[in-house]
Write a structure and sequence with these properties.
Helices cover about 75% and strands about 0% of the residues. The protein is an all-alpha fold. The chain has three domains: about 15-195, Growth Hormone, Chain: A (Up-down Bundle), CATH 1.20.1250.20; about 205-260; about 265-475, Growth Hormone, Chain: A (Up-down Bundle), CATH 1.20.1250. A two-stranded antiparallel sheet has the order 1-4. A two-stranded antiparallel ribbon has the order 2-3. Helix 11 (about 275-305) packs across helix 12 and helix 11 (about 275-305) packs parallel to helix 16 (about 400-430). The longest helix is centred in the middle third of the chain and has 32 residues, at about 275-305. Residues about 1-15 and about 470-479 have low confidence and may be disordered.
């Protein structure tokens, strides 16, 4: 493919841009957004020892996840109006500036506050590249390109703790934030120079009211999942109030979307049978990803006595298989145009992966565990970004940004809920045992067993996916 590409959107040609450089800049943004969800976890003890505030240490992670998940759906609509490049560069600037402030924080409240700001910037850094890459390349290459983004997600998700451990041990925890500065500035420079896409013509007002309602509902739901059954009883006033707030805000959001002139998530999207399946399937996939990515490293440390760096390296069978399958499946789907068989196969393989992992015991040889990790990675590799492509191909061009934002945001919400629900399940499994690595190693397979029925539900959804989902695209891109 040539470096210069002329993209046509709704029949209007754009100015020429350097596609490889733009792609590199967008992928750097994706890498940073996912990496900062996981890279901090390994450094939390050092952060608490330096800043104090051990009782609030979890909010260093939670505040970032809440902010990035709650704002993700908004960025697609904003970029329709102001342009992908402008909004992406602005969001990276916010992310970079807040990363510097994170490194300079002197108290725990300061760090939590700037992590929230960092999360607001990060909300754009996976959504906008996913949209822009689907516009930079012609539709028949979407699966191939999005396959690479799935590899970036896997690498950043599982490699984050490993990178965090290495950086913290070598130069201190503040550098896990400072390292974002050169990478972020490079991503900004590449996109500012190379990305050339026409505005979508979103002349209407941005749906701020809808964004506030869905952000409030998202935060309420995540707090219920985070606190319920752990720090607060399910029947406590706080949890019941949060459930009520979530239900009320969600109902108001649905009501408002039917009346807004330029809704954040147009209700017409749900008239498409492919999207009615793809969106809930994406949420369920996110939950399965979250529940496995977070607790597999913990199992490796508890069952095999590995350190954080060793555990990160031991997950290579999962990461490498995920990346390879995601890339290869994207290329095959792009060439043949048939995604449903791959998605069905992926969901069945995920069922098998969770079933195998649920039977682990501390005596399981690592070689066998590595094979099982590879099975799960292969299933996720077939599913993750190909579900995004299904949603994109089912949407009309005018709704591409809204559809992509909704899909990626729903997956992020599912991932966060999966982490929280798995944490609750682990807490319940450990209630009858004295805290110890042995008890943790024995409990985690029981948590992973819950992934089997969830993955079976994913198989059912994939079976319901229409065989043909492509929406005709006027003015197809040419290279």
């Amino acid at each position: 493919m040539s470096a210069e590409l002329t993209q046509t959107v709704s029949g209007t040609p754009s100015r020429a841009g350097n596609v490889p450089l733009a792609t590199a800049g967008l992928l750097i943004g994706m890498l940073l957004s996912v990496l900062d969800q996981t890279v901090v976890a390994i450094a939390l003890p050092d952060i608490a020892a330096d800043l104090g505030g051990m009782d609030a240490i979890g909010w260093v992670v939670t505040s970032y996840v809440l902010a990035s998940t709650a704002t993700g759906a908004l960025y697609g609509r904003i970029s329709d109006r102001f342009g992908r490049r402008t909004v992406f560069v602005t969001a990276v600037a916010v992310f970079v500036a807040s990363s510097a402030l994170c490194g300079l924080a002197q108290t725990m409240p300061q760090l939590v506050a700037v992590r929230t700001l960092q999360g607001i910037g990060a909300g754009a850094l996976f959504v906008l590249p996913t949209i822009a890459l689907s516009e930079l390349y012609p539709q028949h290459l979407r699966s191939r390109v999005q396959g690479f983004t799935g590899g970036v997600f896997a690498l950043a998700s599982v490699g984050g703790p490993l990178a965090g451990g290495v950086i913290t041990d070598a130069v201190g925890w503040r550098w896990i934030f400072y390292i974002n500065l050169p990478l972020g500035l490079l991503g900004m420079a590449l996109v500012a120079f190379a990305l050339r896409l026409p505005k979508r013509g979103g002349a209407g007002k941005v749906d701020v009211a809808g964004a506030v309602l869905i952000a409030g509902a998202t935060v309420s739901l995540l707090l219920v999942a985070e606190w319920g059954g752990r720090t607060r009883a399910w029947t406590s006033g706080v949890i019941l109030a949060l459930i009520g707030v979530f239900a009320a805000l969600l109902a108001l959001f649905v009501w408002w979307q039917r009346r807004a002139a330029n809704p954040l998530i147009p209700p017409r999207l749900f008239a498409n049978p492919a999207l009615r399946v793809a969106l809930p399937a994406t949420a369920l996939l996110g939950a399965l990803l979250g529940g496995s990515i977070v607790y597999l490293p913990t199992y490796l440390q508890a069952a095999y006595g590995m350190g954080a760096t060793q555990a990160g390296l031991a997950l290579n069978p999962y990461v490498l298989t995920f990346m390879a399958v995601s890339s290869l499946a994207g290329a095959r789907i792009g060439a043949g145009g048939r995604s449903k068989p791959y998605l069905l196969a992926g969901s069945v393989i995920v069922v098998l992966g969770f079933a195998l992992l649920s039977r682990l015991d501390p005596g399981t040889a690592y070689a066998l565990l590595a094979v099982e990790l590879g099975v799960l990675g292969a299933g996720f590799g077939l599913l993750m970004q190909n579900l995004v492509v299904v949603a994109q191909n089912a949407a009309p061009p005018a709704d591409l940004a809204a559809t992509t934002s909704a899909t990626v945001s729903i997956r992020g919400l599912g991932l966060s809920l999966g982490v929280a629900v798995s944490g609750n399940l682990l807490t319940r499994e450990l209630q009858s045992s004295a805290p110890s690595p042995e008890a943790t190693a024995a409990a985690i397979p029981g948590v992973l067993a819950w992934g089997v029925p969830a993955a079976v539900a994913l198989v059912v959804l994939m079976a319901l996916l229409p065989r043909t989902v492509d929406h005709p695209v006027p003015g197809k891109a040419t290279t």
